Amino acid sequence: MENFEKVEKIIEKTGVSYEDAKKVLEENNYDMLDAIIALERQGKVVTPKEGSYTAGAGQDMENVQKFELAQRQYEKDCKKNNFKEGCRKIADFFKFIFKKSLEIEFCINKDGRCVAGVPVLVLVLLLLGFFWITLPLIVIGLFFGISYSFTGVDKVILDVNDVCDKASQTAENIKNEFKKDNE
Predict the structure, then answer these.
(1) ∠ CA(139), CA(102), CA(161), 5° rounding?
(2) pTM of the entire structure?
(3) pLDDT at 95
């Protein structure tokens, strides 16, 4: 870019006179950025109030302002969508958990057959509300030959049932040892 074109560009972007633009460019070895900074320091160019620098006159400045406004609105909309999407994902997760808690049953077994069964949701509510009553009753039931299992459609149930079977077997072993000691 020739020096004359640089002078015109400075005038276009800052709105200063031809003499001021030429003088400041000469003082800064025709470096446009240094010239604009020098004009700002002299108070001939108004510095922007926000964090970015935009210098322009007339239509250019109006377009820059419209663009900045559109950008702020876009960022605001993106934040709204992310929050809404996050809330939607949390709601979907709780809906999934609620549905599964109704599909899976906690079965109380005596002599290998299911005597009673309740949805896991009921078991969880009993444990949360009446922990000191529900848990001891479950443990005491193990010593009276009651076993527990879960029925439903998930693979997890098989693993949980193995744990329930081991707990029943452990209770049976403790009961047998207690009987031997008392004989």
Answers:
(1) 40
(2) 0.45
(3) 92
